[in-house]
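Worked Example 4.2. Consider the chain below.
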Amino acid sequence: MSTSLLYVMLVGFDVIILIVLLVILSRTVLQRDAPQPEENRHLNSLKISLEKLMCDSEKVSQDMLMSFEEQKNYLKELLSKIEEKERKLRRYIIHADDILKQVNQIKPQEKSVDNDPYKKAAVLVAQGKDPEEVQKQCGLTTSEIDLIVQLNRPKSL
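Applying the procedure from the previous section yields the following structure tokens:
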């Protein structure tokens, strides 16, 4: 339920209370006979009760509006943090794609793997070698081989 809808509902409730108060007061004014003292006390008591109810209603509506504003600000802050994380993630993905493009542009026979098992594993995966074979030749863990395979997998849009 939106903040504006709740605000409209609270204002509507206040208007209804005001109308009831006006109807009661107009009946008192329109009566030609002077009301009895007991009736006056009853009307005054009712008037005081309605005024207190209106005051309480205004306080509750103000508290609710403040609470909604706080929640709205908190959600804006969360959204901002999520958007920043998304931007960072996109930068990381672009960087990883750039690295993969560079690796894929080097011809397999021209690749220098030196003594780096990760480079060697990347070359073997790019050549289409089986992950178990790559693991045996490079001495890496299954998780490391899986990561290298995933990084060398063609991207689908």
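The first helix runs from residue 3 to 30. Residues 97 and 151 are 9 Å apart (CA to CA). Compare this with Example 4.1 before moving on.
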